[in-house]
Design a protein that fits this description.
Elements: H1 2-32, H2 38-41, H3 49-97, H4 111-128, E1 147-149, E2 154-155, H5 172-190, E3 210-218, E4 222-230, E5 236-244, E6 250-258, E7 264-270, H6 274-289, E8 295-301, H7 307-318, E9 330-333
Helix pairs in contact: 6-7
Amino acid sequence: MLRRGFILFLPRLVGLLVVACCSVSIVYMLACTPKGDNQQFALPRVHSPTVKEGYEAILQEREEQHRNYIISLKKQIAQLKAELQGRSEQLKNVQDQYPDPLDIRLDHSNPEKAQANLLAFLRSQIDKAEVHSGVKLSTEYAAVPFESFTLQKVYQLETGLTRHPEEKPVRKDKRDELIEVIELAVGSLNNPEGDINEPIFTPKSPLFCFHTGIYRTEKDKGTLYELTFKGDTKHQFKKIVLFRPFGPVMKVKNENVNMADTLINVIVPLAKRASKFRQFMQNFREMGIQQDGRIHLTVVYFGKEQMNEVKSILENTSSTQELLARSGLLCLLA
């Protein structure tokens, strides 16, 4: 009987405990909640007068900041203009006090004098460049190498000693530049001294056919071009030297070159590669000796391996019938 009464009372006891816990929780939350003004919990309304006034104040402050920044920029621009005008006046006073020895000043009121001054300046650039004479350099790395070109190809040193050093394809700007130079050189051949009765040649004409050219660019002076044209005899050539001083191309030299008594020196550095050297000597004998003969070959050999084979190739080439009358054309430096 007692057990049955306890079982019936147990759910009521659990319900009372749950109600007590909820009451304690509510009292704890009310007691621990921080006190604050009612305005802190109230959400602002967009259309309320207070929010509109705040936005207007912020916009007015930003507008004032931008206005002050614009005024500051205008003051800086005015100061810079004043400094620029002062520097220009100082430069003008210095030029008047120390005139340029070349008198390179463009006077637009006198076009002829301006053209003469410009031409004198361009001529001075030619004198500064390595055109008429060389310049002493501090190291070999300061030397500006030449690049060679023909009507179809450009051979450059930037790629190093690769198997195919020609540029493929040639850039359009470089091709147009070289074509312009060749046309100017042909024009110089057609009219060397202003004589209109001279024969007319083209880059591909049998007489004065364009052979090869070299060029290099000095960054502070300009570009030098040397073009070689075949002459009317086997050993006669025409050499045209042009210079572009970051302006119009100018003719520097037009001369005849006679290569009949000129000895060509070829220096070949070699290490091993005897089979390739044998093929080279065969081509050298056919192209250099049999056709011309005015050539001297020096082989600089590095190392000891295959050196005897290289000597044998040179001795066999030297002992042929066509080299009996050409002593001293071949030598070996080890």
